[in-house]
């Protein structure tokens, strides 16, 4: 195989596929439109206060009791994990004009998700360390994928400055949300209609979501026997969890109950103001002066979502591998959490999809 396998997307699926193929002696190139690696995995620090820790604005948990691929990878990479903090009472916010209700929470600790010390970004960073740095090309957006009559594949990319460039490929792994492929990448010859319809209708996981993390000097809610867990029907956050690192700073993160259209109409500052007010109502004066409010609206990230993703999806059955690629069969492969039917939306699904695609490529190269 003289030409490399080109992997489009430097998220968890793309990087895992690159590592597995590289270990088998297959040359790869990972192309990423963003100026960073990780895709929807994003862990941020408070500006100029990195000592407070890194906080997840994308995926936060995995469940080792039944997600074996990610558990094995975390152990292989020597990463440290810890169980989500839920000790203490929870709060229920049911009325805008009344204080929240305090409830005793009954929960089995084995059912809790597990977090990584240093945030989920530590998984991406550790994977990237196993891959030659020159293999990953950032700010490189794929515009077109062509195949001639002899089966030769050419990938046209746009660099940061707008310059177009052609690359030859043995095959292509599309490790990004399927809707981005349908919307932004041209194929010549065209992909089969059935496949295009399938990927255009496959909702982007997190595509309608936003996440906020509010950082404090300490997890003060624990001092009064609260877990940090809140369920709210009046919002703006409908679910809140303790996002504190294992020591030092305190943090609360939440998922929104207001739609992407409303969030985007309000703008980030107004959204953060509403969040701050909600936390003061829930937790009192200790919540009045946070160190920072970190906010990420995935629905407005054009490297993640398309317009159709703005509405929360309901059709979970649409997840899984797309149908036959026709002329592109054995040339183009789909990876990513949306293409795994068992663990779609989870990091486990991203890993399983990468391993599935790599196994197909290895089978083809061994013929």
TrEMBL record:
Gene3D superfamilies assigned to the protein according to its UniProt record, in alphabetical order: FAD/NAD(P)-binding domain
Pfam family, one: NAD_binding_8
Amine oxidase domain segment(s): 112-361
InterPro entries: Amino_oxidase, FAD/NAD-bd_sf, Flavin_MAO
Family indicated by similarity: Belongs to the flavin monoamine oxidase family.
Name by which UniProt lists this protein: Amine oxidase
Organism the protein comes from: Planococcus kocurii
């Amino acid at each position: 195989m003289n030409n490399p396998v080109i992997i489009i997307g430097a998220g968890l699926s793309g990087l895992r596929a690159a590592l597995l193929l590289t270990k088998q002696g297959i040359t790869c190139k990972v192309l990423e439109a963003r100026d960073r690696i990780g895709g929807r995995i994003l862990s941020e620090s408070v500006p100029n206060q990195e000592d407070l820790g890194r906080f997840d604005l994308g995926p936060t948990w995995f469940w080792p009791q039944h997600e074996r691929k990610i558990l094995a990878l975390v152990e292989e990479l020597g990463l440290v994990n810890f169980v989500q903090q839920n000790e203490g009472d929870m709060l229920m916010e049911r009325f805008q004009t009344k204080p929240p209700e305090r409830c005793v929470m009954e929960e089995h600790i084995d059912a809790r998700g597990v977090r990584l010390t240093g945030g989920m970004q530590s998984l991406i960073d550790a994977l990237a360390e196993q891959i030659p740095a020159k293999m990953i090309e950032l700010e490189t957006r794929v515009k077109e994928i062509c195949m001639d009559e002899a089966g030769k594949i050419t990938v046209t990319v746009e660099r940061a400055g707008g310059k177009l460039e052609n690359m030859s490929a043995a095959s292509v792994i599309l490790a990004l949300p399927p809707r981005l492929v349908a919307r932004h990448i041209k194929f010549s010859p065209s992909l089969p209609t059935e496949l295009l319809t399938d990927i255009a209708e496959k909702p982007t996981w997190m595509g309608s979501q936003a996440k906020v993390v509010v950082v404090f000097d300490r997890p003060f809610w624990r001092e009064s026997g609260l877990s940090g867990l809140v369920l709210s029907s009046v919002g703006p956050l409908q679910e809140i969890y303790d996002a504190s690192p294992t020591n030092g700073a305190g943090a609360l993160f939440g998922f929104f109950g207001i739609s992407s259209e409303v969030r985007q109409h309000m703008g980030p500052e107004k959204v953060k103001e509403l969040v701050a007010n909600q936390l003061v109502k829930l937790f009192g004066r200790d919540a009045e002066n946070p160190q920072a409010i970190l906010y990420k609206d995935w629905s407005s990230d054009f490297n993640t979502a398309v317009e159709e993703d703005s509405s929360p999806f309901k059709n979970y059955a649409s997840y899984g591998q797309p149908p036959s690629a026709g002329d592109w069969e054995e040339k183009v492969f789909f990876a990513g959490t949306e293409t795994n039917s068992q663990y779609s939306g989870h990091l486990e699904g991203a890993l399983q999809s990468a391993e599935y695609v790599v196994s197909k490529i290895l089978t083809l190269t061994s013929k």
